[in-house]
Amino acid sequence: MWLFTAQKSSKLQGKLIKFYDLSITAETTETILARFESEAKTRKADVLIFQVGKNDMAYKYTEDNYLVSPEKVKTNLEEIIGKAGKITGNIIFIGPANVDETKTMPWGLLRNLYFTNANIKKCNEIIKEVCAENNIPSLDIFGILRDEDLSDGLHPNASGHQKIFEKVKNFLLERKMI
Q1: Calpha distance 56→58 (Å, rounded)
Q2: What is the pTM of this model?
Q3: Looking at domain 2-174, which of 3.40.50.1100, 3.40.50.1110, 3.30.450.40, 3.30.70.100 is its CATH number?
Q4: Looking at 19-23, 92-96, 127-131, 149-153, which range is the least confident one?
Q5: Which end of the chain has fewer beta carbons closer than 10 Å to its terminal beta carbon, N or C?
Q6: Cα(112)–Cα(22) distance, integer angstroms
C-alpha cells in the first residue's frame, strides 16, 4: 500500500509530494483492510495506491487452499474501496506482477507456499472487475517483468522495481495525479 500527500509549496512553485510506502511482507487484502484507514488518516493521504493480490492468491500445499479465496478477495476489495472513498476520491489499484514459477513452486524457506502466474492472472481479473464496477482506475502490470527482474522469483530486484516505477509514474502522470 502506498500513500501520497500533496501540499502547495510556494518554494517549489507547485506541489510538494510526500510518498509513503506502507507495504508489509506477506500482506493480503485482509491485512490491508485491517490497517489502512488509520495509516491514511494519520498521514492525511490525498492519493491511495493499493498493490494487492499476489499473497492472497498464493496457496499452501494444494491448489485449492488459497491464503485468501478469490471470493473473499473480491469482497475485501469492495470494502477497501468503500472505506478509502471516505478518505479521498483518488484511489488506484495496481495488480500483482508475474513471477518466475521455477522459483515459486514452492517458494520460501518453509517451501509450503506456491505462487503461480495463473492465479495472479485470476487476481488481476478480479481487481479489474471490481475497479470497473466502482469507477476506480486500475493498472495491470502482469508481464512487464522478466525472470531476471525478480530477485527470488517473487520479488523484484532493482531493475524490476525500476520497470514498475516507470509504469506507475506514467499511469499517475496520464491521470494528472502527480
Answers
A1: 6
A2: 0.90
A3: 3.40.50.1110
A4: 19-23
A5: C
A6: 26
